[in-house]
């Protein structure tokens, strides 16, 4: 409960408020909200809303189920709303604006990445809830994508007793949700332009964090599932991007 409160209720809601405040401050000082600010506001509003409307999926995630509530999680949750707000603050202070073509491209990439990230996370965590008999459909939470819940999904039964999902996005790549998450993080940075490294810090930090987490998860799964993990990797050979890596 404490981890849930710290990770979702405080950090993401505070980020949304800071980003919105930066957008309103830009409007007050410059008379308009730039298209760069629109991109980052839409991106972070979608992310915050996803944490709220899909809150029932969070208890089965790595952060809550496996990660200790130690220095890393406490520090991350404490700095999240301020570090993640760097882009909107940078856009406001420098009144950054991008071309119309760039605006359309970034919103398109963001939309696709968000859809993959949202539905992939939903598929995985709702599959876990289905196996435990705890899944309850939340019709009022918006948006709920139809492909976010797999009906009669295919899975691999392991000798450890767990079931590994090999359907939906999870037959495409083992960490497809991380790929989509990184794509969104890159959109956050690119909408700020290319004159400073500051907006790209989060993307670089997040990339190294996810690589480290994937390595930890691979070691843990190999120890837990043994030969079954090797069979699973043969069924789903790619980690991030199908046919590439």
From TrEMBL:
UniProt xrefs under Gene3D superfamilies: 1.20.120.1630
tRNA processing listed as a keyword: no
The keyword GTP-binding is assigned to this record: no
GO cellular component terms attached to this protein's record: endoplasmic reticulum membrane
Membrane topology: Multi-pass membrane protein
Keyword list, A-Z: Lipid biosynthesis, Lipid metabolism, Membrane, NADP, Oxidoreductase, Steroid biosynthesis, Steroid metabolism, Sterol biosynthesis, Sterol metabolism, Transmembrane, Transmembrane helix
Entries under Pfam families matching the protein: ERG4_ERG24
Transmembrane segments: 98-117, 182-203
InterPro entries tied to this protein: ERG24_DHCR-like
Subcellular location per the Swiss-Prot or TrEMBL entry: Membrane
GO BP term (any one): ergosterol biosynthetic process
Any GO molecular function: Delta24(24-1) sterol reductase activity
Family: Belongs to the ERG4/ERG24 family.
Protein name: Delta(24(24(1)))-sterol reductase
